[in-house]
Structure formats: C-alpha cells, structure tokens
C-alpha cells in the first residue's frame, strides 16, 4: 500500500477517574486503508459514559466495530464516494448488535455500555464524518489555513449530557460528506472539547491545531508515529491540561504527506 498519512494517538485517564479508581472509558483507533479510489485514513474516537458500568467495553466495541464496518465496505471494491446513508445506518446497526450480544452475555443492559462515536474517513479527494454525541473531528483542507468543525458536539438539555450510539431508539447521527482533500485532521473526545473549541462562535482554535499537528506533518514516519504518541500522552496528562479538565481525554492527530 502506498501510505500517505502519519498520525499520533493518545489516551489519558481523567483525574476524576484516578480519584475514584475508574479506568479510562475512552477508546481511539486509527489506520490507513487501501481502497479502489486510493488510500483512506480511518480514525475513530468513542467516549464511554461516566455513568455506564461497562463504558470502557462499550467504547472499545464502538471503535473496533466502526473500523471493521469501514474495512468491509472497502473490501467490497467500493470507494469512499460510494458510501450511502443506508450503508452507515447498517454499520451503526451492526455496532449496536455487538453491544446487545455483549450485554446479554454479561447480563447487563445495553445502556450500561453507553458510548459516543466520532468517525472520520479521509480519502484522496473527499472525506466523511459520522458523529453521535459529543467530542468532535476538526479538519483542514489542503491548500488552506482554516480549521473546520464539520459536525458540532451534541449537548443535552442539562450540563455534561449528550446522546449515545446505544440509546434506544438511537439518536439520528450527523453524517457529513466533505468534497475536499484534507491534509490535517484531529479527532478528540469531550475531555478536551472546551479547551480547543469556541462554543460561542462554534469555531475551532486554529493555532492550537496548527501547533499540535506540526510535528506529525514534519515527521518522515508514515502510519502510527509511536515516537510522537508518547509525548502527546504526556501532554494530555500534564498539569496544564488536567487543571482545566478532570475527564478522560483522547486525541488523534493526522497529517497527509
């Protein structure tokens, strides 16, 4: 495969979880896939609900299920531009069924695995965002300097509430097709959402994303950049960040070469 992307990926346990002995309930995955129309970066972040007893299992199933569904689509010799809304609903149904099977075996309720979904596919000339809940993907079109938030985080009626892929009935996902070539992307859970997004103006803090993606773009490493993922984890664990948020934090940073 002719690789065109490099990325760093990190998760950090929130200080509130450390105090109560809870594990990190976020999960994040990223990989590059070869397709009939060229290489596609597939990245996904899921935030397990803090009130859900099996949130960490839920977020893992969401991420692995999303990448499995995307991989099967491309293995069927279909490109990113051939993804239809009904295909995405089939993907989400498959993820929900995996959760249901797990819940039956564990003798729990599916909502005990409540988790969000932020999925991004970035192809040669187009991109797709699939989003349920909070957190966000922030992207930059090649040849521009503006960072865009294709799908805004969903905030419920009360503070710190959102919707989940495991809701019954499932909330309508935000599905956004972007007919552009992306060169940098960031996908993150709501743990750092208010640090990097301006909710009043509904914009991203461009200088922050320029700064954190610059090392990935400058690196000669394709694929998962382990050397950059370690300091990214340390940054998410830093006092400067933890003083501003006590939640779990996940962040994927990608750059096209």
UniProtKB/TrEMBL annotation:
Protein origin, superkingdom: Bacteria
Domain PPM-type phosphatase: 13-232
InterPro entries: PPM-type-like_dom_sf, PPM-type_phosphatase-like_dom
Protein name: Protein phosphatase 2C domain-containing protein
């Amino acid at each position: 495969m002719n690789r065109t992307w490099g990325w760093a990926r990190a998760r950090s346990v929130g200080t509130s979880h450390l105090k109560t002995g809870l594990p990190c309930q976020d999960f994040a995955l990223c990989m590059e896939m070869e397709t009939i129309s060229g290489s596609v970066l597939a990245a996904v972040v899921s935030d397990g609900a803090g009130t859900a007893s099996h949130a960490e299992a839920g977020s893992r199933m969401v991420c692995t299920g999303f990448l499995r569904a995307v991989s099967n689509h491309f293995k069927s010799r279909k490109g990113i531009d051939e993804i239809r809304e009904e295909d995405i609903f089939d993907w989400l149904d498959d993820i929900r069924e995996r959760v249901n099977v797990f819940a039956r075996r564990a003798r729990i309720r599916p909502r005990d695995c409540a988790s969000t979904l932020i999925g991004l596919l970035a192809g040669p000339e187009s991109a797709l965002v699939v989003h349920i809940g909070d957190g966000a993907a922030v992207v930059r079109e090649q040849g521009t300097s503006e960072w865009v938030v294709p799908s805004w985080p969903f905030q419920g009626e009360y503070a710190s509430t959102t919707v989940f892929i495991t809701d019954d009935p499932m909330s309508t996902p935000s599905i956004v097709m972007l007919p552009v070539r992306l060169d940098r992307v960031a996908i993150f859970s709501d743990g750092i959402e208010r640090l990097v997004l301006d909710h009043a103006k509904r914009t991203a803090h461009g200088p922050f994303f320029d700064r954190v993606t610059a090392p990935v773009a400058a690196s000669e490493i394709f694929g998962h950049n382990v050397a950059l993922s370690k300091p990214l984890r340390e940054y998410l664990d830093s006092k400067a960040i933890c003083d501003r948020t006590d939640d779990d934090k996940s962040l994927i940073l990608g750059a096209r070469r």
